[in-house]
Amino acid sequence: MLRIPCPFCGDRDEAEFRCGGELPREIPQPGVDDDAWSDYLFNRDNPKGLVHERWCHSFGCNQWFNVVRDTVTHRIHAVYRPGEPRPALDGPCATAAKSGG
Predict the structure, then answer these.
(1) pLDDT tens, 11-60?
(2) What is the DSSP string of the chain?
(3) Cα-Cα-Cα-Cα dihedral sign, residues 30, 18, 50, 93
(4) Which of 42, 61, 74, 85 is spaced 20 to 30 Å from 18 by Cα?
(5) Cα 78 to the chain's mean position, in Å?
(6) Cβ contacts of residue 38 below 8 Å, gap of 6+?
(7) Taking the complete model, does pTM exceed 0.90, yes or no?
(8) Per-residue model confidence (pLDDT) at position 59
(9) How confident is the model at residue 90 (pLDDT cuts 50, 70, 90)?
């Protein structure tokens, strides 16, 4: 099981979290047709390699945060709070925000 370091609560099992998709995702403008709205809701790029994603600790603190994860190995390279700059990737898991244990 994947262990995710929540920047608010510390390391927890993946089952406590929900993935909110890739960052950034451009929201369609009001008045778009059904095809464009459907594409936004149901389709993702699904790249191979490092991806920036939003995750929610839904069975914990219920806070959203950002994760840099390798889609091939599932290794988490960094976690950081929304609004913080993307961290430099220089360690096994560079946590931008201090974990709460």
Answers:
(1) 999 999 999 988 877 788 899 999 999 988 888 888 899 999 999 999 99
(2) --EEEETTTEEEEGGG-EEEEES--PPPPTT--HHHHHHHHH-----SSEEEEEEE-TTTT--EEEEEEETTT--EEEEE-TTSPPPP--SSSEESS----
(3) positive
(4) 85
(5) 10
(6) none
(7) no
(8) 97
(9) low
CATH topology of domain 3-99: Folate-binding fold (3.30.2270)
pLDDT confidence of residue 101: 37
Instruction: For tokens 């913080």, name the residue.
Output: 84
- The CA–CA distances, whole Å, from 92 to 30, 45, 77 equal 41, 25, 6
